[in-house]
Specification:
alpha/beta, seven-stranded parallel sheet, 29 helices, single chain, Rossmann fold
Length: 754
């Protein structure tokens, strides 16, 4: 575990509506999942006082924020009160994750509001079923219409801002995709049953032929039950039906009236809400489960009845074909006589019961709450991360490009990250990172017209990242130039040489202003910066007045590659002992000075068998370096190698006397660590970040001190014992610079767990 700190999670359960008791499928799902995974988070549950009574037993570890003292009276007025209270309370707290347990507006509105305030917070939204056409829904048409309108309003907010959407059947997923919610945000996670618990309950002594268990609501088809059971009673006059579930007094009164009108007072018992053990005891004593619900997102009640060993008869809803294929008897909605006939057939033929129980038992094993909870936790914890790659890195090696590659390949090992690479050349990037599993790439258009590079950084890239709803973005190069965004932005700061030492770079007023004004503004607006050295951090603070607290120092790493031995004497005509310099041929590396130093060193006849090898690609203003080399008296003893692969470089490190690194300015100085890992001494400048290396202080020399460098080189060239001692010490020191530690440092500061 990279970061053991628990993520803060706001669980919105404001839509709970007490009807005297009962519990919806959505509420049950919430309880079953979070009692299994909830202790992995620091949870605040926003709900009513009645909701707290419902949830507190199983979720006692959570903190409850009461949004309404009770949920009685007008449902819409109560929802408005809860919404207002939640909006007031939630903005006071910092959350990593928002989990909205329903698509009702008192759960959706606060999540949408909070996402606006803190864009990096991950919002997971649950959508379990779609309102049918309101004029076809049983019960009040006004309530149905209002519910339909509110659900569509909620969908608009979810479409705009939710990071993850959990749905429990493919029909809902298809609708949401057509509604404009991208497939990549949709996650199909079914409901489940607690088989172990259900198996532990004993059948009740009182026997029933049929049973119903759900909330007493018109949409559950409860008013169909008396009509269906009247058909059963014609065949079995003493047949008994148990109706279990809480509901409003109005609904219960209407149900009782229908029972009396059909002369079924002796055949149907309205048992109301029962404790779980009693309810399942009755189910286990019955023979058939009646479930004439008109709308279901999944059908937890059916699954539980099947787990209790009951045959099931239900209206023919499309979702059942997906969830319970071939395991239940279904009837076209409204065909009451046929429904009653199927129930009667089951009661008549015990063989049917045995067969259906066997099918149900086999099917229901697939729906374990334990498995489903693990799956849902992965979705909740998932972080969508964009790694922004500079176009330069595609073709290059070493320096920044090496850093990008090492970070990318290690970030991909984090299981809770959904990573995309964002860059400018799809074919080349696809080839470079083909070794990565689940490779995803987002291509940014690469066009040529004045200032397009700036437009790309300031407008196009942040727009693309925002549209794809990334929670985090890490700029791996030093091109942090975003003005507007709605995601958590961090970046790696290497150095500020274009500003601090403009004379060492391509002379361009536009380039200077770009770095001074535009990048400076964006750096200050970034949420977090990773400086590769303490010196770089100081430069950021002094140059741009950036808050010190949001700059984290993460020294770069090194991983010694297994390379083949190369005959460099033959390949590069390097036959003598030699000092090695590694880095791009550019003014900042101070190679003109180094050539002049070596020219003085070479005058000493004691060291006629010692050469200088410079390995590095041609950079800007390299011409003067080549000119200086060509003019020196000892140019034949100075070898410049512009192209060397990993095998070549490894052999150069193995064979050299020491690394000489007189750079005028470095953000870190990766070749220093590389040489140390090969048990080599290093002679370096005492400037910028280089002075932070814990090497022999006698080998840290001012970058204009020729006698100092010559003295150090002579000692190394003649004192083998000194070289051996330094080499062993340096190799141990190099182990502190580890890419895995670097990436873990980044992940920990971003709050990413492994």
């Amino acid at each position: 575990m990279v970061n053991s700190k628990k993520k803060r999670l706001a669980l919105l359960a404001n839509a709970f509506w007490a009807t005297g008791t009962g519990i919806s499928g959505g509420d049950q799902r919430l309880i079953q999942i979070f009692k299994r995974i909830g202790k992995n988070f620091e949870i605040d549950i926003y709900t009513s006082s009645d909701g707290k009574k419902l949830f507190s037993k199983e979720l006692s570890f959570a903190n409850f924020v009461i949004t309404d003292h009770e949920c009685r009276g007008n449902i819409f007025r109560s929802y408005l009160k809860r919404n207002k209270k939640t909006l007031h309370e939630i903005k006071k707290r910092d959350y990593d994750i928002i989990y909205s347990s329903s698509d009702f507006f008192p759960d959706v509105a606060p999540a949408f509001f909070y996402k606006k305030l803190r864009s990096q917070t991950r919002w997971t939204q649950c959508i379990f079923h779609l309102y049918p056409k309101w004029w076809k829904r049983p019960g009040s048409k006004i309530v149905a219409l209002v519910g339909y309108i509110i659900q569509r309003y909620s969908f608009r907010k979810i479409r705009k801002s939710a990071d993850r959407v959990i749905n429990i059947n493919s029909d809902v997923a298809k609708f949401l995709e057509n509604y404009g919610i991208e497939q990549e945000r949709l996650n199909l996670v079914p409901c489940g049953v607690d088989l172990e618990k259900i198996n532990s309950y004993k059948p009740s002594r009182k026997k029933y032929d049929g049973a119903f268990l759900a909330r007493l609501a018109p949409s559950k088809g409860i008013f169909d039950l008396p009509l269906i059971w009247s058909r059963v009673v014609k065949k079995f006059p003493k047949a008994k039906l148990a109706i279990i579930g809480g509901g409003s007094d109005e609904v219960k009164s209407k149900l009782k009236k229908l029972i009396d009108e059909n002369g079924l007072a002796e055949n149907i018992d309205i048992l109301g809400y029962l404790p779980e053990d009693e309810a399942f005891g009755i189910l286990k004593s019955a023979k058939v489960f009646l479930f004439p619900s008109h709308e279901e997102g999944w059908g937890i009640a059916i699954a539980e009845a099947m787990a209790a060993g009951l045959s099931v008869v239900a209206w023919d809803l499309p979702v059942y074909k997906e969830v319970f294929p071939g395991a239940i008897s279904s009837v076209a909605i409204g065909e009451v006589a046929e429904f009653g006939s199927k129930v009667t057939k089951i009661l008549t033929d015990p063989k049917i019961v045995q067969k259906e129980r066997k099918n149900a038992a086999n099917l229901i094993r697939n729906y374990s709450w334990d498995r489903i909870a693990i799956e849902e936790e992965k979705i909740i914890s998932k972080i969508k991360l964009a790694l922004l790659i500079d176009n330069f890195c595609i073709d290059k090696v070493g320096g920044i490009w090496n850093v990008e590659n090492e970070i990318i390949k290690r970030m991909y090992k984090y299981k809770n990250l959904d990573i995309s690479l964002v860059g400018y050349n799809l074919p080349k990037l696809a080839n470079k990172y083909s070794y990565l599993k689940n490779y995803q790439f987002i291509e940014i258009p690469l066009k040529k017209f004045p200032f397009y590079s700036d437009i790309r950084h300031f407008l196009i890239v942040p727009k693309v990242v925002s549209k794809k709803r990334f929670n985090y973005a890490i700029e791996l190069s030093q091109s942090i130039q975003f003005i507007s965004r709605n995601f958590h932005l961090s970046g790696i700061a290497y150095d500020l040489t274009p500003l601090l030492l403009p004379e060492l770079h391509r002379s361009s007023l536009v380039s200077y202003l770009r770095h001074r004004l535009l990048m400076g503004y964006a750096l200050k607006k970034a949420d977090l910066l990773f400086a590769i050295s303490k010196h770089t951090r100081s430069d950021l603070i002094n140059t741009f007045d950036i808050d010190r607290k949001k700059i984290k120092v993460i020294p770069l790493g090194y991983e010694k590659k297994v390379t083949e031995e190369v005959d460099i004497a033959k390949k590069f005509n390097v036959k003598n002992k030699f000092f090695l310099a590694v880095g791009t041929l550019e003014p900042r590396k101070n190679y003109q000075f180094l050539i002049e130093v070596f020219d003085q060193f070479a005058k000493d006849k004691k060291f006629l068998d010692v050469d200088l090898v410079i390995v590095g690609r041609l950079g800007w203003k390299y011409e003067k370096i080549i000119e200086t080399h060509n003019m020196t008296r000892n140019k034949n003893r100075i070898k410049i190698v512009n192209s060397a692969d990993d095998n070549d470089l490894g052999s150069f490190y193995r064979k050299c006397l020491a690394l000489v690194y007189p750079s005028l300015y470095e953000g870190f100085g990766l070749p220093v660590v590389e040489a140390m890992s090969y048990e080599k001494p290093v002679i370096i400048s005492n400037t910028s970040s280089l002075k932070e290396f814990p090497i022999d202080e006698n080998l840290k020399i001012a970058p204009d001190d020729k006698p100092g460098f010559i003295k150090a080189m002579k000692r190394i060239a003649k004192d083998e014992k000194y070289v051996k001692v330094l080499g062993k010490k340096n190799q141990e020191l190099s182990k502190e610079y580890n890419w895995q530690k670097t990436v873990e440092n980044i992940a920990e500061n971003l709050g990413i767990n492994d």
